[in-house]
Amino acid sequence: MGKYIGRRLLQLIPIVFGVTFISFLLMHLAVTDTVDVLYEQQSGANAAAAAAKRAALGLDQGFFTQYCHWLWQVLHGDMGQSFVTSLPVSTTMLSKLPATLELMLLALFLTLLISLPLGTLAAIRKGSIWDQLARLLSFTGNALPDFLFALILLYFFAVKWHFFSFLTPTADRSPLLPALPLAFAMTAKYLRQIRALLLDELSKEYVQALLCRGLPYHYVLTHYVFRAVAAPLLALLALSAASLLGGSAIVETIFLWDGVGKLAVDAIMLRDYPIIQAYMIWMSALYVLFNLAADIICAYVDPRLTLRKKED
Amino acid sequence: MKLKQLLALPVALLLVFSLNGCGTVTAPAATGKVFHYGTMAYGPAMQNASTDPHDTYCGWSTVRYGVGETLFKFDDQMGLRPWLARSYEQVDDYTIKIKLRDDVVFSNGKKMTGEAVKACLEDLLARNDRAPHDLKIDAMTADGQTLTIRSHEKMPDFINYLADPYSAIIDVDAGIHDRIAIGTGPYKAVRVDDQGLHLVKNENYWGPVKPKLDEVLVYSIPDGNTLTLAMQSGELDAVQGLPYASLPAFEKNGAYRILSSPTSRVYQAAMNYDTPALQDQRVRQAICLAIDKDNFVSVLLRGNGLVAAGPFPDTFPFGQGVQGPAYDLERAKELLREAGYTHTDRDGYVTKDGQPLTLRWLTYTSRQELPLLAEYAQASLKKAGIKVDVNATDNYKDFLKRGAYDIYAQAIVTAPTGDPGYYFMSKIYSGQPYNNGHYSSPVSDALIDRLNNTFDRQERFRLAREIGQQIVNDDAVFYASFLKMSVVMKKNVTGFAPHPCDYYEITPELDIH
Q1: Measured between CB atoms, which of B19, B56, B233 is closest to A158?
Q2: Smallest CA–CA distance from B52 into chain A, residue
Q3: Are residues B57 and A42, on separate chains, in Cβ contact within 8 Å?
Q4: Are residues B65 and B11 in the same domain?
Q5: Same-domain status, B183 and B219
Q6: N or C: which end of chain A has fewer CB within 10 A?
């Protein structure tokens, strides 16, 4: 297992290298750069000022020179400075990550808290009121855009009932309200997935055989069926977790949540390359690590996966 | 029992998250009179999330929020008045002598002297990317409260640049710590971050009117809907930048007051002279005549604008008297016929040599008025037989660089320094990189050259009006309207009003009762 983890972690190096190279290339394929964006936004500046700014940021260099310079900096532990704020990229990212982590972990937790029991109920009580409720939630969650749900929540919780304050700094504020629209949207997807996975598993012959031998239904469900569906569910969860930890610009903007999602979108709009590159590293690492974690957990939960690999 | 324990864990975790801050509407600890202000105009994306005036566009925050002041300032008619300076004297075309006030102190109690101002301006030239190219300072000497500045080019609008927010005077010896600069304004910053500013009263304020509030909290709220809800929740005392659609909700509510001021941010559409069809002035004129500006402002902008005749509002001394074309659809059709567009295709668009007159209208969406203008122009020009393909994209600069547009509509502040020279040099003069229409007129160029060498303010204003009229006569740029900036405040707020130059928001007069 140790070797396996080591090998997977080593894969992170070419992935990060490839992703950052491609993102750097894509950014430079655009005709405009940071200086164009910054000055145009503020009524323009004279050509000499723009040229000086471009030189100061190293944007007058060739593409490969710029990329190599950035890579060299990163390899020395320096993520550079934001083109817009001149603040160190690592400080900026680190200052926003805790808020995003807090928000997204809660959203993930709420998703599981709602979708696991309700999805299970919808599957084992197929056609019941629980199944109808799960279907209604799922359709509504998929149809309702998260920004609209977020605004509805704000209207009631902030304007009508004063449970939410706009003025409290992110660090002192509960992430519950901003997490709800994220969790709602994700729950809508998970409900259907969990229901479908469980129904598929429950219809298998081994389940019928176990029940015929007199094992209690809940015992079969918790000791056999849940273990069997754990692998695909964890794989799904790993992707969702990585995607969530990338932040959500819309929800962060509406709830004034100072996270990395908005930071990334602003950086893309302003062509703030150092921030975008740091964000790409963060996202690559997240996807690789979460998938690795899911694989490891799956191996423990469902030993068939390890056995199959050995047979192969 | 096991199941209960299993369920207890997530419920406990949820409670921890829920009880942490939610349900307790608490503003940051503050004492005395506290003003809560929400704005869309602050934040990293606006390049102003600091009070260090020498850093990019952060000077706007320094001056807007009452942390710093400039040597000169604009009055409500955009006339220049001394602020930290007492007076100035134009010694020759290159030299200016500024007498500073003797009673100004920084918020740390240190006196503002000629040496301190000189050190500040030197720091500005060393660190700001635009200032050296704008100010063109060659040498500075300080003697007591007198500062003499020599430029290496003729600078008739030099004083205007000293009213630009980047020229806010700060104590450079005190340094910049955590984005906090030491200025001379009525308030001093104690916290500055991406989310906003926390300001407290400057007990050492030198001005005749002392700050009335104990604390000011500025919140960056970049989403218009959130800003509206935050104001409706009653937590904010005033907001700036509300979407037009939200204003009626406050107009009807007696608890709020709305104040507006026209600014020099114009919504304009530059005709691309590289487009063959637009090289014919009759076509350009037809476009200008076929769009009803009054209707655009009254209906689509819901009255939150000022119809534009030229590049500057007529509330500015250099914007008065310019005559723009009045809406005349029939005359527009007639002009198109004169230009050879004598037939129409099955869709009703005019054609010449079998080709319909199709124009690519490039604009962007970050200003809510621009997509509206594009759609309105599309519908209006269709009536005249001109087909408009709207390209409203935030990637518009790529299209600009490739020249893939016939008309480029944008929102631009035409008098950021309270002087007309900047706009003409940047947007109108031949060959300039921001002259997106590639307009080139020997008449306009000659007038701009004269303007650049004219020091007399009245003569500068007269020349500016003449240039503005020339642009309109050439139908080089279609000026639709000016932004009317509105602020919404609670009824108990006084001393708070929008300013035409958008520089001054938090002032010593601001109070809540």
Answers
A1: B233
A2: A85
A3: yes
A4: yes
A5: yes
A6: C
Residues B168 and B302 in one domain: no
Residue B16 contacts A, CB cutoff 8 Å = no
Q: What's residue B26's pLDDT?
A: 41
Whether residues B57 and A255 touch (CB distance < 8 A) is answered with no
Q: Report yes or no: B423 and B450 within 8 Å, Cβ to Cβ.
A: no
CATH number of the CATH domain containing B207: 3.40.190.10
In whole angstroms, what is the distance from residue B480 CA to residue B324 CA? 10
Q: What is the pLDDT of residue B24?
A: 37
Number of structural domains in chain B: 2
CATH of the domain at B402: 3.10.105.10
* Amino acid sitting at position A66: Q
Amino acid at B449: D
Does residue B315 sit in the same domain as residue B233? no
- Nearest-angstrom CA–CA distance, B124 and B331: 53
Contact B387, B373 (CB under 8 A): no
A-chain CB neighbours of B13 within 8 Å are: 109
Q: Do B221 and A166 touch (CB under 8 A)?
A: yes
The verdict on B345 and B437 lying in the same domain is yes
Residues of chain A with Cβ-Cβ distance to B422 below 8 Å are 43
Alpha-helical segments (H) within B104-223: 114-127, 131-135, 158-161
**For residue B467, what are the domain limits?**
262-484
Cross-chain residue pair B229–A258, CB shorter than 8 Å: no
Which single residue is written with the structure tokens 């609670």?
A: B490
Answer whether B9 touches A (CB < 8 Å).
no
Beta strand extents in B107-233 (DSSP E only): 137-143, 146-151, 187-193, 196-201, 215-220
> Which A residues in the span 59-88 are in contact with B, Cβ-Cβ below 8 Å?
82, 84-86
Same domain, B424 and B502: no
Where along chain A do its domains lie?
A: 2-75, 93-311
Listed in sequence order, the DSSP H helices in A30-161 are: 34-41, 47-57, 63-75, 89-124, 129-143, 146-154
Tell me the torsion sign for CA atoms B252, B258, B262, B265: negative
The answer to whether B21 contacts A172, with C-beta atoms less than 8 Å apart, is yes
Q: Are B299 and B231 in a shared domain?
A: no
Residue A45: per-residue pLDDT? 62
Domain co-membership, B247 together with B141: yes
Q: Which of A166, A219, A248 to mutate to test binding with chain B, by most B CBs within 10 Å of its CB?
A: A166
| B133-189: pLDDT as tens digits | 889 999 999 999 999 999 998 888 899 999 999 999 999 999 999 999 999 999 999
| A255-271 pLDDT, tens digit each | 988 889 889 988 888 88
